[in-house]
Predict the 3D structure of the following.
Amino acid sequence: AAVTSDVLVTGMTCSHCVSSVTEELSAIDGVEGVSVDLNAGGASRVTIRSSTPIAPAAVEAAVEEAGYALASSP
Ligand code: 9UX
């Protein structure tokens, strides 16, 4: 069964930000889907669906590669 995990990402303010983060996270092995609840000016909730649990460090690296930062893991 697929698993989902949520992270909070800061610095995202437009749909292109969403595209960048989605693209980077989707490139992680095992990731099947990414959805973003954009909260411009605050932390955006990013939900990652994957076949197996994804290492938190891989998620953080992808978010940073896209140019944003992890606020926390709720
Ligand atoms: Mo939109 Mo996001 O012009 O860093 S790409 S603000």
About this structure: Residues 15-26 form the longest helix (12 residues). The domain at 3-72 is CATH 3.30.70.100 (Alpha-Beta Plaits). The pocket of dioxo(di-mu-sulfide)dimolybdenum is lined by residues 13-14, 16-17 (CB under 6 Å).
